[in-house]
Amino acid sequence: MPSLAASPRLRAGMISLLIFAALIAMWQLATLPKAGTVNVDPEYAKLVGAAAAGGQKSAMPTPLEVGRTLWGHIKDPFYVRGTNDQGIGIQLGWSLGRVLFGFGLAAFLAVPLGFLIGMSPIVYRALDPFIQVLKPISPLAWMPLALYTIKDSGTASIFVIFICSMWPMLINTAFGVMSVRREWLNVARTLEVSPLRKAFAVVLPAAAPTIMTGMRISMGIAWLVIVAAEMLVGGTGIGYFVWNEWNNLSIANILTAILLIGLVGLVLDQALAWAARLVTYPE
């Protein structure tokens, strides 16, 4: 069994557990009942309950209450009790589907286009003004235009994911292709390798780690944006779930959704990090 002094990873894990325990303890202390009563708006009192409105109980749920809510969702993640009351597994599935579809479309366009930009200085100079103008635009700024033209909220969300995913992949692919060592290209030229073979046998393997980094950044942005997009368009998805629970003033459900959003984002990021390691080679 490795000692604490000999295992930095074990020590880091222990520190993480201590930080987690401290955060839970602070959360618990912050939600302890308070003595006395507080006069609040009657409508607010109806929503949060008499105890919370009177100051005898915090409107913020305790860690145990959030744990119970999380366990309830885990036990039955795919229930359907109406249009606005569906399991959190279904909501996450809608969001994941939109993200993966929009991300896939963006990769299908951005990687070949970035490859072309990186290989051709003329194409780079021709497209660079458009990229520099379009890149800083917030993805959500496209939402009204997407809703007006596409006239479908789900497809509009996919379009927003497509837009926000494209730029990191496009720029990283172009940068990775342009950064391929001149020596390797010169060797390919000396051996009279055809352009197509040079692209797939020399340039693509050399640029693959940078391309995967762009994909990882794009996926992170896409998962961030889908929550906001679904809050705007409504219907289904984890973003809509959060907004719907806010309207119901169910803070425990909101905190549960936030936790699951973070965990799913972590899984997506680690999956792409694993894929990036597969195409990275030591020099």
Q: How would you describe the overall organization of this protein?
A:
The protein is mainly α. The protein contains 12 helices and no strands. It has helices at residues 8-30, 42-48, 50-53, 63-75, 88-119, 121-134, 143-150, 153-178, 182-190, 195-233, 238-247, 251-278. The chain is elongated and about 80 Å long. The two termini are 34 Å apart. The model has no long low-confidence stretch (mean pLDDT 87).
Give the topology, please.
Layout lengths: L7 H23 L11 H7 L1 H4 L9 H13 L12 H32 L1 H14 L8 H8 L2 H26 L3 H9 L4 H39 L4 H10 L3 H28 L5
Helix pairs in contact: 4-12, 5-6, 5-8, 5-10, 5-11, 7-8, 8-10, 10-11, 10-12, 11-12
Counting DSSP E segments of at least 2 residues, the number of strands comes to 0
* Distinct helical segment count: 12
Q: Structural class, judged by helices and strands?
A: mainly alpha
Regarding quaternary structure, how should these chains be classified?
single chain
Unreliable spans are: none
What's the overall average pLDDT, rounded?
87
Strand content range: under 5%
Compressed to H and E, one letter per element, the order equals HHHHHHHHHHHH
**Global outline:** elongated
Main sheet?
none
Provide the gyration radius in Å. Answer: 25 Å
Distance between the termini: 34 Å
Q: Which bin fits the share of residues in helices?
A: over 70%
